[in-house]
Model the fold of this input.
Amino acid sequence: MDIVCLDMEGVLVPEIWIAFSKASGIPELKKTTRDEPDYDKLMNWRLEILKQHGLGLKEIQDTIATIDPLPGAKKFIDTLRKETQVIIISDTFTQFAKPLMEKLGFPTLFCNSLEVAPTGEITGFKMRIENSKLSTVKALQSIGYNTIACGDSYNDLAMIKASKAGFLFKSTEKIKLDNPEIPAFEEFDDLLMAIEAQLS
Done:
């Protein structure tokens, strides 16, 4: 049996931190996992910047409320879910993802959670499991699934390479050049065709 594992930000929806960087006027927050492979380092750095500027969960959620899925993402995931099982495996947080999942028709999402003080300050984060994307793919394989994975960033490469088939989508030129063996696509129709060709 096949199961498709998709990254969320950069693949189905715009990058939340880039949108918040623009909304808040803090250019440093544009950095994502496309730029920094070490997710813990990236998140701790982000939280320190939020603290310096006195920004918390509400301000980020206000920005997220204005974000829509990438053009064609809803149709893509709806079509895919009619053909096979789909899980979104993301390093985002439940407190960020809910309104975006609603706009995508509530697909299954595995992600992490934020630690938030009563004041709304984000004081930390709790990862669901170490190396969550690779660990999830391996767990699915251990219960009889063939995984087909797709993402755009450094933190997606392990699950892509561990899967029966894997693809880059709307990735950076550097990641594509560093991983020439992974097919890369820019349009949802092309990605859908590539995934469908792998479904058994």
Notes: The radius of gyration is 17 Å.
